[in-house]
Amino acid sequence: MHQTLLFVLFTTIFCYTHIPELEIDLSAPPKQRWKEAVQTVLDLYGYDNSFGPVFAFHNKYSFDVLNQDDYTTIAQALRKNFPEHSLELEGIIEVLNRPEITFEYMAGWAYFHEIAHITNYFYECTGVLLSVGDQVIHGRNMDQAPGQGRNLVLHLFIKKDGKYLGEVVDWYWFKGGFITALKYNVVTLEENWRYDKQLTKESVLTYIQKGLPSLTQVFREILINEKLNTFEKVVYYLENYEVGCALYNIVAGIGKDQGVVISRGPQETLQTLRLNSPIGIKYLVQTNYDHWLPDPEDDPRRTAAENLLQKMKNNLKNEFGVYAIMNTYPVHNEGTFLTVIMNAKYNRFITLGQESITFFDDE
């Protein structure tokens, strides 16, 4: 089995795309923080092979529920409640330098996940937590569309006040937040879409006007908040902050069996699922459907991953084992933008840019 894993590793490693690495200093003036990241993507791929098709795709499938008055409402709320975040978006807009990319438009992107749950159209992601000895290995596949979104993926080293806080790999960074992160010596973090009942536009706008943060700001808060310095404190925070849409948070800590899947929804309290080796739960898998329900027949990613974990259990001793799971179809599928293997105990953060298997018909 070890030889098989090595064969898989070496025969597929050349299929990965390089993910550019950058440093983000959150002590820098807000308008300057993300400019280099935007310019890096533009220099590498150009607007028409990166931001342009991504914006066009989500204008059609996510933001079609908004009108100009809605954009204005969101922008006013963001400026009022999050002036620093607003300045960051202004800096991003300056580098993009296109008349259609206004502050109102980017304010909509700041709340992309909440707005996208109005149509409930998207998407797939997979998280795996594996308990190995005194550590938990965390595998994460990020799936989205369109394919050009792969060109937005960056590996970011986050620092503030001269201290490195952690690492991020994401393509949502251009709205000032992220959904995949390692906080050094504390936790690894992943957010997945949760399919739930559709939200109304009115409920989402009410959430925004109340001054509550967008989904992608939550992991950023965990990185910079010095009080959130243990696995249990982070888990408690993620279990109790007010959310504007359905989601899963997958979290691993630095200690034995420190791994959870937190299921959340607006006005909903659901039981957290925990790793527990004494009763035989050595791994957890979370995709985009409630884990107490069977997989949909047309999307068996969780079942496929669990079957592999069970079959390989005697050989799953390190990151290579989790990598093998994350790189197997359908866990790795046509929408997979990236794979990251994380380990908070040893601050390991292995990023792999994924080519798609087949492109979406929409592209």
From TrEMBL:
EC number(s) from the headed UniProt entry: 3.5.1.23
Protein name: ceramidase
UniProt KW keywords: Signal
Domain of life: Eukaryota
Signal peptide residues on this chain, from the entry's feature table: 1-17
Main enzyme class: hydrolase
Lineage: Eukaryota, Sar, Alveolata, Ciliophora, Intramacronucleata
GO molecular function: N-acylsphingosine amidohydrolase activity
